[in-house]
């Protein structure tokens, strides 16, 4: 091989070696970048303080609650409001006005409780908070007394019986206390009458509002006012009331001087709100005022304070 051919061969070998080196270097860089991507921590989106080692969900929810909050709306678009008192983690829920204008005194009683807690916040134990929903059925109340919220007793006492009975139901003519998911049926019973339980359990926006509130905040106990019989009942869904509901009923009834009954058995109740709460493992009671006009504030204040002290640490 002459000198010229040797030089050409050497140059070719150098060129091949350079190309191989460049290809190997590129491959190693790609591998390094890939491994760097794998080793780099994956960014974690902030969870708003809810997660492992962070603030518990119930505390976050409690901090976001205003003293007066809208928790839903009625068929006719009236606000359903909840009023919050105290800062304890153990929440006791009070509900009035489920039967709107038919039991308007339960709404007046609820507002009396709101005013009392505003004036006497010290009656709430440090570890307890109180929520009051004064009007679960604002449309039924408005149809009877002309207001979906606060009103005066004088605006209601002269209402005729037919108007008051019609106010028991929401604007879809559903009995809200037959619309909850405990032994629910399309038609329910009220005394000797057939009433609508709605198209499905929780078909109505009012019952949805209470359901969502209860499932979000999981109160430790609930007291729901109805009228009229002058008795207190524990709750159970399809069985015997548990000990917690029985104890809650006994505590309220003893302090308020109402008879405490073991079970409501005058007629079959389906889709009942209080019984549904019992199924959610929330001790709940039905307090039936003696008539349709009096709030019996002194009696109920004693029952309320007994319940609050029952849940004090």
What does this structure look like?
A hairpin with a 2-residue loop joins strand 5 and strand 6. The protein has a 7-stranded mixed sheet, sandwiched between helices. The protein has 9 helices and 9 strands. By secondary structure, the protein is α/β, with parallel strands linked by helices. The chain has helices at 3-39, 57-63, 104-119, 138-145, 161-166, 205-217, 243-256, 273-279, 297-310; strands at residues 68-73, 79-85, 90-95, 128-133, 187-190, 193-196, 221-227, 231-234, 284-289.
Keywords for this structure?
Aminopeptidase, 313 residues, 2 domains, seven-stranded mixed β-sheet, disordered N terminus, globular, alpha/beta, two-stranded antiparallel ribbon
Brief digest:
The protein has 313 residues and is of the alpha/beta class. It is built from 9 helices and 9 strands.
List the helices and strands and how they pair.
Blueprint: H1 3-39, H2 57-63, E1 68-73, E2 79-85, E3 90-95, H3 104-119, E4 128-133, H4 138-145, H5 161-166, E5 187-190, E6 193-196, H6 205-217, E7 221-227, E8 231-234, H7 243-256, H8 273-279, E9 284-289, H9 297-310
Parallel strand pairs: 3-4, 3-7, 7-9
Antiparallel strand pairs: 1-2, 2-4, 5-6, 8-9
């Amino acid at each position: 091989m002459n000198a010229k051919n040797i030089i050409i061969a050497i140059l070719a070998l150098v060129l091949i070696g350079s190309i191989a080196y460049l290809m190997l270097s590129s491959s190693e860089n790609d591998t390094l970048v890939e491994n760097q991507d794998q080793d780099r921590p994956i960014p974690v989106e902030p969870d708003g303080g809810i997660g492992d080692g962070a603030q518990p969900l119930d505390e976050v929810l409690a901090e976001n609650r205003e003293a007066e909050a809208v928790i839903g709306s009625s068929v006719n678009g009236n606000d359903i409001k909840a009023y919050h008192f105290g800062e304890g983690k153990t929440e006791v829920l009070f509900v009035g006005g489920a039967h709107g204008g038919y039991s308007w005194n339960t709404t007046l009683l609820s507002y009396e409780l709101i005013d009392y807690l505003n004036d006497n916040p010290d009656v709430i134990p440090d570890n307890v908070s109180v929520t009051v929903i004064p009007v679960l059925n604002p449309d039924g109340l408005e149809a009877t007394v002309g207001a979906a919220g606060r009103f005066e007793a004088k605006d209601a006492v002269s209402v005729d019986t037919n108007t008051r009975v019609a106010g028991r139901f929401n604007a879809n003519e559903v009995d809200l206390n037959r619309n909850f998911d405990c032994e629910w049926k399309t038609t329910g019973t009220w005394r000797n009458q057939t009433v609508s339980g709605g198209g499905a359990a929780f078909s109505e926006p009012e019952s949805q509002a209470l359901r969502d509130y209860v499932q979000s905040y999981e109160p430790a106990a609930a007291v729901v006012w109805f009228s009229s019989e002058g008795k207190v009942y524990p709750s159970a869904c399809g069985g015997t009331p548990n000990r917690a509901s029985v104890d809650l009923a006994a505590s309220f009834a003893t302090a308020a001087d109402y008879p405490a009954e073991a079970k409501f058995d005058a007629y079959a109740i389906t889709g009942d709100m209080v019984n549904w709460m019992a199924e959610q493992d929330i001790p709940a009671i039905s307090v039936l005022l003696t008539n349709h006009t009096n709030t019996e504030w002194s009696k109920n204040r004693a029952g309320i304070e007994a319940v609050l002290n029952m849940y004090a640490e």
